[in-house]
Amino acid sequence: MKRILCLTLLLMGYATAFAQKVEMADTMRSEGKIYVVIGTIAIIFIGLAIYLFSIDRRLTRIEKQMD
């Protein structure tokens, strides 16, 4: 019961945080700059994913050589 209560309060906190109106985001959206921000974040995440997959492949190769 205690876990459910904590989870409910946490979700309600997130809901109120996202319900707020952010003026900076509205300004960036109206000027079209928000797409530059989203594109930059997407490029960074894609780069990190590629880097992590390449490290995973190298580690798998090294582990196979150790056996």
Automatic annotation (TrEMBL):
The keyword S-adenosyl-L-methionine does not apply. The chain crosses the membrane at residues 35-55. It comes from Mucilaginibacter terrae. The keyword Transferase does not apply. Keywords: Membrane, Signal, Transmembrane, Transmembrane helix. The lineage of its organism: Bacteria, Pseudomonadati, Bacteroidota, Sphingobacteriia, Sphingobacteriales. It comes from the Bacteria. This is CcmD family protein. Pfam families: CcmD_alt. InterPro entries: Put_ccm. Residues 1-19 form the signal peptide.
